[in-house]
Amino acid sequence: MRTRMRTAGTLIRIGLAASRSSPGDRLRRWGLFGASFAVAFVVLATVATFATYDGRETRADARGPVITDNKHAALLYREGADSIGARPVSVVFVHPLTSKAPVPAGVTRWPEPGEVLLSPELLRTGDSEGIRTRYGSFADTISGDGLVTPSERIAYVRVTDAPPTSDHRWLPVAAFGGSGGATGEMVDQAPVTSPLTAMWALAGVPALALAVISARVGSRSRDRRSSLLQALGGTSRHRMMVNIGEAAFPVAWGTLAAFVPYAVASLRDIRLGPTGYILDHRDVWGAWPTAAGAGVVSLLAVVTIVVATHRVRRDGRSTRPTSFTSRVPAWRLLACGIGVALVLSSQYVPRKAQLIVFTSGTVVMWAFLSSVVALATRHLGAWLAEGGRRRGHAGRLIGGRWTHAHPGVIVRLALAMVIGIGIVAQMQVWTSRLGEHSKAAHATHQRIKDTVIELTTSGMTSAQTERFRSSLPSGSLLLTRTMHDPGPPRDPWVSIEGSCHDLRSLHVSCSGDTSPAGTSAQVEELRRWYGDIKFTQASQITVRPDGTQSLLVVTPAPGHLAAVKKAAYTLPNPSVQVTELGGTWLGSSGTRLPNWIQLFGVTGLLFLLVAGAVSAAAEFVRIRHALAPLSVLTGRRHVFRSVSSWHLTVPLLIATVVTGAVTAWHSVFFIALVQEGSVSWTVLAAGISTCALVSLAVGFLGARAAAREADQWRPAAD
């Protein structure tokens, strides 16, 4: 046992020494540092996501109302909704029945009648829209214990008058802390698999790609060393020890560096870029034990990638290394085929599983598509070499043979571009997925802004509606919308009632007929949303308490939404919801999804930029040493440009074209699957053009590096 330990220590020291003496050792150390940082960053983000979901559920349960019967009720409770800009706001109306009425977490005492408690984020973002006086007089803020996240927008409003007993939307509450209420950011909460799938597809795969590329930097000398160890009788365990010793320090330091942003997030609340979401540091702090274990797993995963990407022949017939540089493993081609098959079969699985199957297939396909490209370029290399031999073209002959002999070089260089184009295309397609209702809401807002406002309220007498009308902006029209459902076989229909003056202002006659000059833009939008509307004259405006009626306010100009909301929410029995026409779809969760896709996608693109830079720099190191003697053998310096073009630029351009075609098919297939979104051919063309320019730049810089090396090249016994 002692001998084995001593041998292992010696082999690890050999690996440590090799990491400081191999060609491109500094580049590989930084590459492995960045790769281990990227992988650990995504892993720790996964831990933070799980911890955040657990913390959200716990805090939601702490403020959830316990519903009881009227006999044991200590509080009447009703939920409403509002918005600040396009961001939703939860409004909770309360009416204590006793002096000892219970309070939820985050609230020390109920304010006086007509006063309101606001969350800090709602107070910050809504101050410009008059949020301090919209629901009543501002009394205090809600503490963090009563908020699902620090970015939550929620208000507790104590109404001035006792709610009517006929309004069944008021719930009798005995206590708080019994269940998780669907308020605030708990409304329409996506399952934890949704952000994790997006994060690993857009950022996790690029991080793993960076790890593979960094592990293969300067692989030629390491593969020779591995074959030498095998020839000397070394086993796979011995080779593993050397590889671990070579990669240990940069991988360990990279993993530790990833804990720096995690530590910052555990000490203070962090706002996540374009999403506006604030990460609660308490959740991240409580997950430190899990994060420590996840960091170890991340480190072992990167070390495993380093060990697994350096192999030798196991048949005993040759000591030459077997790696990406000598052949493309068949299982990689099979894996890419499986990914394509999953994408194609996603349309035949149950609806709920379609997106998961499609995303899984996409990740596998993009991860191994570069291997398919490498196989194609290997055959292309043989064809180029044969053509160069027949025509006496030295650059084409050498470049073609290198391409045929080293397809792994093209894999590493193309990997960043292939996945990058896929991420850019998916970001664009996902951000275009607004859905039909969201698209219609945005179109309505573009045409009439917020001049049509709908109020969902309980029963109101004519005196109450007139009181409400008097608090509206000058020149506003007040109407009622009624839903009629006669039952099969007749279809539901909508009627709108208003005074003769108000109807005429909308270019509708008092009898309900359209004016010969045409109706107003507001009426046209109402018809787009409600279908065939029947207008009728009403001498008095009332609202029935059965939920079939709502109020419509038409303002003379845009920009009066905040004033209408203040008038509605300060009624004796406030409205449940006040939105502009189609406004519920303007601030839906689907409209916020592009911000998360952008966050994960940009992170993944940053990892890919590092991967591409490391791969290109490694190829420059290799090609400058290999090409330098050619200036002596050929007597011409333009051979550098020729070889670099045929070996690097041409295969990368082919990879770009193939990737563009696959991306276009993939995006169109995704849109057909979800029946939402659109493909921006401009964005796709820009991505392909960028990769084409990168291909040209790689060939040019490779030739330039070789030319500079040739000026100082001297024969050596290598």
3D architecture notes:
- The protein has 718 residues and is of the alpha+beta class.
- It is built from 23 helices and 17 strands.
- The chain has helices spanning 2-18, 25-63, 120-126, 131-134, 193-215, 219-231, 236-267, 281-286, 288-308, 330-345, 351-391, 394-405, 407-431, 435-448, 462-470, 500-505, 521-530, 561-569, 583-586, 589-627, 630-634, 639-674, 681-711, and strands at residues 65-67, 75-84, 87-96, 115-118, 137-141, 154-158, 171-176, 270-272, 277-279, 311-312, 321-322, 452-456, 477-484, 493-498, 533-537, 549-554, 577-580.
- The protein has a 7-stranded mixed sheet. A 6-stranded mixed sheet has the order 15-14-13-16-12-17, with helices on both faces.
- A hairpin with a 2-residue loop joins β2 (75-84) and β3 (87-96).
- α2 (25-63) packs antiparallel against α9 and α7 packs antiparallel against α9.
- The longest helix is centred in the middle third of the chain and has 41 residues, at 351-391.
- The chain is elongated, with a radius of gyration of 33 Å.
